[in-house]
Each structure stands twice: as C-alpha cells, then as structure tokens.
C-alpha cells in the first residue's frame, strides 16, 4: 500500500526564500524517508515556487510518486509534470481550498510549511481526523 505524504503551505515563494522552503521541506520529508518502500507526495499540482513544488522535486529525486489535487483555478498555472507511472492528478471544485478535504482524505501524514491562517486551519482539520501533522513556519523577516 502506498504511504501518502500531503504537503500544503506557502503557495508562492519569492526567490529570496526558495532555499529556506527547500531546506524545510527536505528536512520534513527526510524524517519520513524510511517508513515505507512505496511513497507518494501529494500536493497542490502547480509548478510555481512553493512548498509542494519543492516536495515534488525532492520526491522525484527519491524515486517516489507524486500527485496533485487542485481546484479548477489551477488551470491558469503551469502544472508540475504528472506523467510517471503511479502519479495521480485530480481536479476538485472551482475555488482555492475546495480540494483540501479530498487531499486530507488521501494522506497518511500532512506537512504544512508556512502558509496563511487558512493553511493552519487545514492542518488542524487533518489533526482532528487523526492524521499525523508536522508544521513548520517560515521566517520572512530576512533583509
């Protein structure tokens, strides 16, 4: 059975913070690295500098599957390539956030890296459903 790691959080990251986001996502994924042989990272589909894009890229390097669940608004953005065996792509709803219940229902662990108040609420929603949640905040006070 595939072990699914959901990644939510900062959906748009300026180049000044990409390395910090990468490091934090990498650290969280490395904590889960040896739990299961068959792993998928499930995120928000788009291929813009973000927590889920970093997670997708790291997952590919580890030989893991990737999956994207997003709303129809994602059609206006470039998508991370979902073309390898086992990859999952699903469009749910018309507005940002409509896809979150579907994503939470599919994950074994949820990682939140940064994000706004809504992302914190989504992490709590997962926790309320008994899902293991890891939360990492970002420091955007760099000079």
Write up this protein:
This protein is α/β, with parallel strands linked by helices. Helices cover 32% and strands 22% of the residues. It contains four helices and six strands, in the order E-H-E-H-E-E-H-E-H-E. Helix 2 links the parallel strand 2 and strand 3. Helix 1 crosses helix 2. The radius of gyration is 14 Å and the shape is globular. The relative contact order is 0.22.
Question: In brief, what are we looking at here?
Answer:
By secondary structure, the chain is of the alpha/beta class.
Relevant terms:
single chain, 143 residues, alpha/beta, Rossmann fold, 6-stranded parallel sheet, 4 helices, 6 strands
Low-confidence stretches: none
Taking all residues together, what is the mean pLDDT?
A: 87
CATH architectural arrangement: 3-Layer(aba) Sandwich
Helix content: 25-40%
Termini separation comes to: 45 Å
Strand order of the largest sheet: 4-3-2-1-5-6
Total strand count, please? 6
The tally of structural domains comes to 1
Per-chain topology:
Elements: E1 3-9, H1 18-32, E2 39-43, H2 51-62, E3 65-70, E4 88-91, H3 100-106, E5 109-113, H4 117-128, E6 132-136
Helix pairs in contact: 1-2
